[in-house]
Amino acid sequence: MKIHTAASFGVTAVQNEFLDRYMPHANGEFVKIYLYLLRCAGAGRELSLSSIADIFDHTEKDVLRALLYWEKLHLLRLSYGSKGELLEIALDAPNQAPLETCAPGKVEDKAPSPARIAQLSQEKEIRQLFFIAEQYLQRPLSSSEQSDFIYYYDTLKFSSDLIEYLLEYCISKGSSSRHYMRKVALSWAEAGISTVRQAKEETTLYNKDYFTILNSFGIKGRSPAAFEQEMMSHWLSDLGFSMELILEACRRTVRQTHEPNFQYANKILEDWHQKKVSSLGDVRALDLKRKAEQDRKPAPKREPAKAAAPNRFHNFTQRDYDYSQLEKQLLNH
């Protein structure tokens, strides 16, 4: 396979247009492959899908997905032979290409069109993917679930292997719901995960974080429930809190409620997020501000104590007795 570019450089030059407009939005593995193509084009190297896959420890399908991604953005052009084999890659200048990407760190959360679903559902790889999913779930897929898997494949550019691992991971965590699986898939896409190896590294890191949080609640000897995982993922991914702040919220929760209350901890963290807390110093500043506000409040007025109402015992007239005289009278009798 040949690769060439419109210009030749003594060094590998990357245009600022690419760095400013395209790199921030792209999957990290796709960026690495594009930069490698620039390097090879400048050196006049011969390439193949397999050689690129070996360099990055990817599958050939992963490499092809990266090439198709950049072709869609008009940063390169692919030429094929009569048998569908890739023959040539032509790199184009970034400033010739319209920008068609999502916001940085975000992915398009939109279902594929019915026409696209119908088209891809006929492909062998998609039918095989549906079959594998049904084996994991032990039931036929609903039309909504089929749409989800096509979304992972076509929009998020997940390989079949990565989607299979997504299924395996979610089920191992006790949840096969569409909501949970889609949330995990989106978090992987936003983190730039495009291979099974990356996903395993990410889930291992998250598992470590999860157990750290559980231990802070005094929960040991079990894996987190699906609800707990979703809550902790929300704190780590959506709210973007450091482990230091999450553990502080957990300590305050246990101190206040005397139990591992995820909802209470979530209220603390949501409040901190709203107040743009990013460090323990910010937390201490909030505590001082709250205390100062409480000190400024006037002390509540106390009602004067009311005199006790008279009762029949207090109204009883006391009598004086001569106990010596009474004793003599009793003895004389």
CATH architecture heading of the largest domain: Orthogonal Bundle
The CATH homologous superfamily of the largest domain: Winged helix-like DNA-binding domain superfamily/Winged helix DNA-binding domain
Q: Approximately what portion of the residues adopt beta-strand conformation?
A: under 5%
- Sheet/helix structural class: mainly alpha
SSE blueprint and pairings:
Layout: E1 2-5, H1 16-22, H2 28-43, H3 49-56, H4 60-72, E2 76-80, E3 86-91, H5 114-120, H6 124-137, H7 143-155, H8 160-172, H9 178-190, H10 196-216, H11 226-238, H12 243-257, H13 262-274, H14 280-296, H15 323-332
Description:
- The protein is 58% helix and 5% strand.
- It has 333 residues and is mostly helical.
- It folds into 3 domains: 2-94, Orthogonal Bundle (Arc Repressor Mutant, subunit A); 114-194, Orthogonal Bundle (Arc Repressor Mutant, subunit A); 198-284, Arc Repressor Mutant, subunit A, CATH 1.10.10.630.
- The protein has a 3-stranded mixed sheet with strand order 1-3-2, with helices on one face.
- Helix 6 runs parallel beside helix 8.
- The protein is elongated and about 140 Å long.
- Mean pLDDT is 80; it is low at 96-105.
